[in-house]
User: What shape does this take?
Amino acid sequence: MPTLSKTEIDDFKAALRGQLILPDDAGYDEARTVWNAMIDRRPAMIARCAGVADVRVAIGFARAQHLPLAIRGGGHNIAGSAVCDDGLVIDLSGMKSVRVDPFARRACVEPGCTLGDLDHETQAFGLAVPVGINSTTGVAGLTLGGGFGWLSRRYGMTVDSLVSVDIVTADGELLHCSRDEHKDLFWALCGGGGNFGVVTMFEFQLHAVGPLVYGGLVVLPIEQGKEALRRYREAARSMPDELTVWCVASLAPPLPFLPAEAHGKPMIAFAVCYTGPIENGPHAVDAVRRFGSPSGEQLGSMPFTAWQQAFDQPLVPGNRNYWKSHNLSELPDGLIDTLIDTFRTLDATEYEVFFGQIGGATARVAVDATAYPARDTIYVMNIHARWSEPKDDARSIAWARMFFENTKPFALGSAYVNFMTEEETDRIAAVYGPNYQRLVAVKNRYDPDNLFRNNQNIKPSGSK
Ligand SMILES: Cc1cc2nc3c(=O)[nH]c(=O)nc-3n(C[C@H](O)[C@H](O)[C@H](O)COP(=O)(O)OP(=O)(O)OC[C@H]3O[C@@H](n4cnc5c(N)ncnc54)[C@H](O)[C@@H]3O)c2cc1C
Assistant: This one.
């Protein structure tokens, strides 16, 4: 990093309405901490922007000083790309406004919002955007990678509800992009990540949801796993878009509805969310109860906002995490057998594999309609190692990689960009498949010097 003089730093600080946090400042360690405790980076400065003007100043400063640059929304990215060593972090976490127009069914959302912030504001009007399953995740990073969750089978990927964005590009210009303005840039932002500038506003189409949904968990002992997954696979083929069923293999946590003897034993759990008419809920989820003989279940109606927080507890920040991910179009027998045989003998509480079911509306969009291309993906499989002690790093990473390799033959070869760990840059072309070259062309036009490179990087032509 170039050495900055005190005057340069003071001038930068004075030009911001928000805060400039330096390594000796109180709050620096908190400000550089992200969700994944594996990430321990020390930026030279963190600009906690108060608005678009600050974002423009910060981009200009990073460009002029040739500083490494990172952009932080919710700080959830597993690769830790929200922070960089020795450079500048543009921290958007203070920009949290959500403006809902319930009549037009639109929401304008600032990039520091979490999914919980967004749900809070939209659900006040019985409306929602399809986003992820953990309320502390950032809207910004999730949306820019594609975004999916409990509403996606019904209403599509998050980007399928994106109407427009405001973005500050590498040259400091503020552009408003939509399907009609700066079309190529808008297309690229619908899945191409943080490669093209800093988004300062997301405008979403809203959909009627809730306020009550029907769902919960059905837990089976692992011994029933193979048969249960085959029944799940069969049932999934004809599920209505209003019903989404994710599946997770892990050791059973001490859930209050499970008998004590099931705690800590390998399990298959089905997480169910039905967003159709609430009175139809029990009937809609009944098939899931018949995947086997559950060791416990908890199903019922609840506010959508409560369901959106149901998985916050196991996914708290501060653990060490390593993920590997495959996209799947099916659950072949070989994959089911590998999963169940692995978990049958697993004794580590910290490892899980989940299958996020999408399809439905996500699959009824053309591959080239958005930069997010994986319209053939029906299950996003995530291999999730989570642990607390650095001494377990090697063991846990090796376990995730081993399971990833063992299941590769059953996968599509693509992946969800938001689930990729940092060393997977070589998968980027495969992730974007037929859309990759168009993304490179947009990158060439808007960020030819690759100022925005601390991400799953789409390199401009000619750069190494
Ligand atoms: C516990 C957990 C659960 C998750 N569940 C889901 C899920 O259900 N569905 C799903 O789709 N994903 C899910 N994810 C993945 C999630 O989409 C990514 O981690 C995403 O990057 C989070 O966004 P963020 O703003 O919090 O990330 P950050 O770490 O703040 O940012 C990640 C990257 O996004 C880019 N970025 C962020 N803000 C901006 C901006 N304003 N302008 C330009 N670029 C920007 C930057 O490149 C940045 O490095 C989950 C992640 C976690 C940790």
About this structure: Residues 273 and 460 are 41 Å apart (CA to CA). The two ends are 19 Å apart (CA to CA).
